[in-house]
Amino acid sequence: MVRITNGKGFQMTFANGWTVSVQWGVGNYADHYNTAWYDGVDDVCGVTGSATAEIAAWDADRQWYDFGSDTVKGYVSMDEIAAFIHKVSNFA
User: Fold this and answer.
1) Residues sharing a CB contact under 8 Å with residue 71, sequence separation 6 or more, in sequence order
2) Residues 33-50 as b or e (16 or more Cβ within 10 Å = b)
3) Of the four, 26, 49, 85, 90, which is 20 to 30 A from 34 by CA?
4) pLDDT tens across 17-44, in order?
């Protein structure tokens, strides 16, 4: 399953029960973190895109993936995002 989250990212849930979140809107740890909020800004972020995004993952019991110092990792490149999605999708 894939879901759009507040117009500024998406979540993917895999058959193994894990969900990956990728976010890049205002307030997310990505290129638009400090963009001033105004009505419609998330739509603008979606159109302009971002070179980085914030990622997180959790299992069916809402136990969050631990990046070592936090449960969210910010300013992640597209290659890192793709690798993370692949990694989580293969958890047993």
Assistant:
1) 56, 58, 64, 65
2) bebeeeeebbeebbeeeb
3) 85
4) 999 999 998 889 999 888 877 777 767 7
